[in-house]
Every structure is written in structure tokens, then in C-alpha cells.
TrEMBL record:
Protein name as catalogued: UDP-glucose 6-dehydrogenase
Limits of the UDP-glucose/GDP-mannose dehydrogenase dimerisation domain: 210-270
InterPro entries attached to this UniProt entry: 6-PGluconate_DH-like_C_sf (IPR008927), NAD(P)-bd_dom_sf (IPR036291), UDP-Glc/GDP-Man (IPR017476), UDP-Glc/GDP-Man_DH_dimer (IPR014026), UDP-Glc/GDP-Man_DH_N (IPR001732), UDPglc_DH_bac (IPR028357), UDPglc_DH_euk (IPR028356)
Organism: Urochloa decumbens
EC code: 1.1.1.22
């Protein structure tokens, strides 16, 4: 039986693993976290997060092939595939403060994986991270690898809070990036086989590592641009007497543009709508996009309108 361990029982780790467990009864899934209250909540009738449909999914597979535990090291050591879904908040101090992602939790998870592993592992980046993070993680894992083979994959999560279960059941796409070596391809295939239990093959995209890491940041940047654009239009609406809902509806009817993510609002969406901003690890194009829609610029003279909160 393939064993999956997910480090981080948060908004992404919990629902994602619950859906994998539901759709793959032949796989054992253990979600681990250093937070005891969080794990207790996952094991109770009051889950730590609310998502429509989540209760049902957890009830169906918890205790069968889905488990929640604080015994992080044991389950990491036993796993074939380790998802790392820890928080990567925006740095509050040091280089890149207020902008770059803080990878402290990720790095400490990687060090722990290196310490406790005794067999080959596929390590999957689920957290949203700057491009080339996989390279840094690879260095930590292989520094003292004791002959263990680690394959790092990037498998960013695109779910949105509020529709997480629906998004996981029917994803627009699942993206898996890996090394372009025979071992890398084998690892990509192993993860593809997991998703293939319920995701149609043409929706599982495989790329190299950096394309997968960058695609998540690029998607965030595109989504942020749409909100920034409609917020800018809302200022024009105020000045001209136009109604931003009517304008957004009319614009979104164009099939080249589409209707989603065109509501004027106070922010980009959920906490994951952070933009790529770590200059050292970032290609220029993305930095430029990011500067066009900084958080500070996101709602010029925004006035919330009925139905657009
Ligand atoms: N929330 C979203 O909608 C969303 C969507 C897509 C991607 N993401 C990304 O996914 C990642 C996780 O986000 P989240 O919302 O699930 O975060 P979260 O804060 O809800 O959960 C992260 C969990 O990781 C645990 N953790 C941290 N370090 C650990 C360690 N060393 N060992 C064990 N557990 C540890 C924390 O205790 C916490 O429970 C972030 O990078 C985020 O940007 C989030």
C-alpha cells in the first residue's frame, strides 16, 4: 500500500488529503501537524476549518485510510510520498520584509525529513513558494542523505477557500513539476497515478520543476491583476456615474475575458493571493507584474457596492 504523509494540517493540507483519501481507498494518508489543538480538531466532530462538503468527506474516510496525528517524525519516516503544506507567510522582517515568502517552516520541515528518513522519498511542494525553492530544499535533503534518494516535485494548489472541496473534486488542472531525469519522471508518474484515480488525464499537466513553481505565482499575479483592474474601473465608475457591476458584467461577457474574478473588492481574495516578490529568485517579468498591482494599489478610492463584498 502506498503511504502518503502530509506535513501541515491547514487549509490546504486537510481538505486536499481528505479528498485524496476518499478517492484513493488503496492509499493510506496521514496528515501530521505540530499543532496539537489543530490535530485534535481534525479528529473531532468540529473540524478546524469550514468548507462545504468537507465534513462528509472526512467522515467517510477518517479511521479507514485517513488519519490525523501529531507524531510527525514517525509518519514522515514511514511515508513513500511526503507532501509539505506548511504555511509560508509573508516575511515581517529582514531582507524582503512585507514582500517575500518566509520559508522558515518549509526549511525546518525539510531538515526534519532529512533527519528521520531511512528510505527513498518523493517530497512534494504543496505550499506556495518562490521559484527555485526546490533547489534549496534538495540541498537540505541531500546534504547528509545517507544514500537515500529524494525526488522533489512541485504540485502547487489552486483551490479557493469556500469552494475547496468542489475545486479538489473537479480541478481545472493539476500541475506536477519534476526533474527531467529518469528518476524525476518516475516520481512525476507516481504522483500522477494518485490524481488519476479521479482527475481526467488531460487535466493533469506535467512540466519541469521551475515551470510548475512559476505557474502558481504567475496564476496568482494574473488573478491579482484582474482585481486591480476592476478596482481601477470602479474609481472611474464613481467619477462618471457608471455602475461597476454593470461594467464588469458587460466586460466579462467577452469570452476572451470571461466573468470570473471581476468583482471590485477590498483585496485579492484569500491569504494565498500573495504575489511573487523575492527579487533574488524571481524572473523580471513577474516582478514587473507584481509592481503593477501591489497590495497598496489594489483598491484606488474603492467604494464597496451592494452585492460586491
Ligand atoms: N489557503 C489557501 O487558500 C491556499 C491556496 C493555495 C495555496 N496555499 C498555500 O498552501 C500553503 C499552506 O497554506 P494553508 O492555508 O494550509 O496554511 P495554514 O496556516 O492553514 O496551515 C499550515 C499548517 O502547517 C503547520 N506546520 C508548520 N510548520 C510545521 C512543521 N514543521 N511540521 C508540522 N506542521 C507544521 C502549522 O501548524 C499549520 O497548521 C501556504 O504556502 C499557502 O500559501 C494556500
Amino acid at each position: 500500500m502506498v503511504k502518503i504523509c502530509c506535513i501541515g494540517a491547514g487549509y490546504v493540507g486537510g481538505p486536499t488529503m481528505a479528498v485524496i483519501a476518499l478517492k484513493c481507498p488503496d492509499i493510506e494518508v496521514v496528515v501530521v501537524d505540530i499543532s496539537k489543538p489543530r490535530i485534535e480538531a481534525w479528529n473531532s466532530d468540529t473540524l478546524p476549518i469550514y468548507e462545504p462538503g468537507l465534513d462528509d468527506v472526512v467522515k467517510q474516510c477518517r479511521g479507514r485510510n485517513l488519519f490525523f496525528s501529531t507524531d510527525v517524525e514517525k509518519h514522515v519516516a514511514e511515508a513513500d510520498i511526503i507532501f509539505v503544506s506548511v504555511n509560508t507567510p509573508t516575511k515581517t522582517r529582514g531582507l524582503g520584509a512585507g514582500k517575500a515568502a518566509d520559508l522558515t517552516y518549509w526549511e525546518s520541515a525539510a531538515r526534519m525529513i532529512a533527519d528521520v528518513s531511512k528510505s527513498d522519498k518523493i517530497v512534494v511542494e504543496k505550499s506556495t513558494v518562490p521559484v527555485k525553492t526546490a533547489e534549496a530544499i534538495e540541498k537540505i535533503l541531500t546534504h547528509n542523505s545517507k544514500g537515500i534518494n529524494y525526488q522533489i516535485l512541485s504540485n502547487p494548489e489552486f483551490l479557493a477557500e469556500g469552494t475547496a472541496i468542489e475545486d479538489l473534486f473537479k480541478p481545472d488542472r493539476v500541475l506536477i513539476g519534476g526533474r527531467e531525469t529518469p528518476e524525476g519522471r518516475k516520481a512525476v508518474q507516481a504522483l500522477k497515478d494518485v490524481y488519476a484515480h479521479w482527475v481526467p488525464e488531460d487535466r493533469i499537466l506535467t512540466t519541469n520543476l521551475w515551470s510548475a513553481e512559476l505557474s502558481k505565482l504567475a496564476a496568482n499575479a494574473f488573478l491579482a491583476q484582474r482585481i486591480s483592474s476592476v478596482n481601477a474601473i470602479s474609481a472611474l465608475c464613481e467619477a462618471t456615474g457608471a455602475n461597476v457591476s454593470e461594467v464588469a458584467y458587460a466586460v466579462g461577457k467577452d469570452t476572451r475575458i470571461g466573468p470570473k474574478f471581476l468583482n471590485a473588492s477590498v483585496g485579492f481574495g484569500d491569504q494565498d493571493q500573495r504575489l511573487p516578490e523575492e527579487p533574488v529568485r524571481e524572473p523580471r517579468g513577474v516582478v514587473h507584474v507584481q509592481h503593477c498591482c501591489r497590495q497598496e494599489d489594489r483598491c484606488p478610492r474603492l467604494r464597496l457596492q451592494e452585492g460586491h463584498r
